[in-house]
What does this fold into?
Amino acid sequence: MHQLTLAEIARGLADKKFSSEELTKVLLARIAQLDPQLNSFISLTEDLALQQAKAADARRANGESGALLGAPIAHKDLFCTQGVRTSCGSKMLDNFKAPYDATVVAKLAAAGAVTLGKTNMDEFAMGSANESSYYGAVKNPWNLEHVPGGSSGGSAAAVAARLLPAATATDTGGSIRQPAAFTNLTGLKPTYGRVSRWGMIAYASSLDQGGPLARTAEDCAILLQGMAGFDSNDSTSIDEPVPDYSASLNDSLKGLRIGVPKEYFSAGLDPRIAELIQNSIKELEKLGAVIKEISLPNMQHAIPAYYVIAPAEASSNLSRFDGVRFGYRCEDPKNLEDLYKRSRGEGFGAEVQRRIMVGAYALSAGYYDAYYLKAQKIRRLVKNDFMAAFNEVDIILGPTTPNPAWKLGAKSSDPVAAYLEDVYTITANLAGLPGLSMPAGFVDGLPVGVQLLAPYFQEGRLLNVAHQYQLNTDWHTRTPTGF
Ligand code: GLN
It folds into this structure.
């Protein structure tokens, strides 16, 4: 039963082949048995899950239907979940039980989804390896000595290991797409403003966006359908109708113009990944797509701009964790300053502290113009490159990452080496564009992802292209040995 996709689960539940309660019990047992190897969960919510599963079964018995009614999922542990620890992977919030549900959590619960637990993540979503979590590193089910990617590494490892069919995640600079690539999943970062950020603990507010991680594009369509939509509680949520994502999955790709940026195939890209990307291009050509070389000339500036903007916003967002209102408080503070210093010094891990310092520096008087403002100008140039490209093509295709998943610890002492791995994903966040990563093959037994980018609000187009690709390839069906 653990091999079923969300789409298959919906059919099985509708046909009364099994109940949501039965399925939930099977998956909870599987998590108990296998997750100790992976460390993909921070909290399990067995009681909540069984209660939601029974309620979903009762709703189905009353004639209700719906693709998510009774479907087991998990939430990245930065979505506030009422009455449940919401730690953001940090000691700072180890004792924090959210007093309310994030909009995403509430919407999925209302659709009948069953929450099995909260997944592990890099502390405050800062990272690409899921090694900065206070709760320990997450392992990649494809090779337990390698990282699963980050910051949504827990969601990715759990879904890849078939502990559950799908999970929520967030992407500030690649944290949905990069772990999807590293674990052979399909992951979608929606347009900025498509999915509400209310109740999603902020890292960098102008970049953060929630989205689905699943095995197939078809399942991403189902989960995104439950997550997307306008929310008056989020001032950056966009009031744009949500299309039926499943309805466009089978649109023809005849004449689809795919742009391949020449800058993507530079020296930093593993040639074996380059070859797999070329294979995926050929596959899409067979389906009727037309390939065109394009240029994104400002791409080289994106990493430095991102690593100014994201830490600047993080330093501002994380100032609320001061040991006074909620979260961790140090023992026996001598005075107020000591309370602030020690609560923050003891509550935040090294990477978070590094970014708070970089961000505070970039925003400080005298440096604001030189760093933050400059970075914002680069951000506009990156966006303009995309706008020019989308005048000529419908989607942009390339690798999700320059290398496959690295070994645990390989980049821990060199943060910049890890930052450089974000080269292909970060630009979509700077521009606010939707992006998807899907399985495209293997290098040394480790999965490789191909990334698709589209104009604003064209999530449906991305899912359509990925679905057609998946109907004609079987990379996404491969299961890691031992799971
Ligand atoms: N790796 C990037 C960072 O560390 C992106 C993280 C994310 O998308 N949350 O900031």
About this structure: The pocket of glutamine is lined by residues 125-128, 151, 171-175, 203, 310, 422 (CB under 6 Å). The chain has 15 helices and eleven strands. The chain has two domains: 6-256+393-477, 302-366. The domain at 6-256+393-477 is CATH 3.90.1300.10 (Amidase signature (AS) enzymes).
